[in-house]
Amino acid sequence: MQQIGLNLNQHIETFILASADEGKPASGVVQLHADFMDYDLSIELFDNLRKTVQWEQESLWIAGQERKVPRLVAWYGDSDADYRYSGKLHKPLPWIQPLLELRQRIEIVVGSDFNSVLCNLYRDGQDSMGWHADDEKELGAEPVIASLSLGQPRAFHLKHKTNPKLRHKMTLTSGSLLVMKGATQQHWLHQVPKEANITQPRINLTFRNVIGSSVK
């Protein structure tokens, strides 16, 4: 795979997320780098990662029943970046070169350090991610989450935790980078909904910084 470069002329759209209480400070910031990566390069990277990432389909216990997670996942990172989410402890796989190079490039653009990445493979529109916030204590009070999309465009939704009338919807295209920061995870939920008409796959890479072991 060729070296991953930066698009120095990229357009950045910033969303200041409103507070549920009028007159209160903004409750988060989301930035969309719509053309972070050249489209052709993003598809090349998608093909590479689909073959080389150690994808797994996890199962979760919900209301006493074991249910398969509706997507494939993999957790990569530094050796001490243990992370617990959805009730399961994830020990990181060692970095592979494409993910390590992406981490370095994204750190330059975002201005934050990352020690791990959650990889999600949505095989088609039946695969999804339900409403949630990346608010685990080991990510800190105001984590920076940098999310790179590759492959099939998919819808991405945000809604306020206490006032669901406050919402944002956008489409994440191949090569786009979405950055959530500030108090976003404290006050907002996000999801990738099912889309029955979609038949093609998408990979999403969410880079983050684990600041303390989730075992504690």
UniProtKB/TrEMBL annotation:
Ranges where the Fe2OG dioxygenase domain occurs: 113-211
Molecular-function GO terms, alphabetical: dioxygenase activity
Domain of life according to the entry: Bacteria
InterPro entries assigned: AlkB-like, AlkB-like_sf, ALKBH3, Oxoglu/Fe-dep_dioxygenase_dom
Keywords: Dioxygenase, Oxidoreductase
PROSITE patterns named among the record's database cross-references: FE2OG_OXY
Signal sequence region: none
Keyword Oxidoreductase: yes
Stated name of the protein: Alpha-ketoglutarate-dependent dioxygenase AlkB
Record organism: Kangiella taiwanensis
Lineage, top ranks: Bacteria, Pseudomonadati, Pseudomonadota, Gammaproteobacteria, Kangiellales
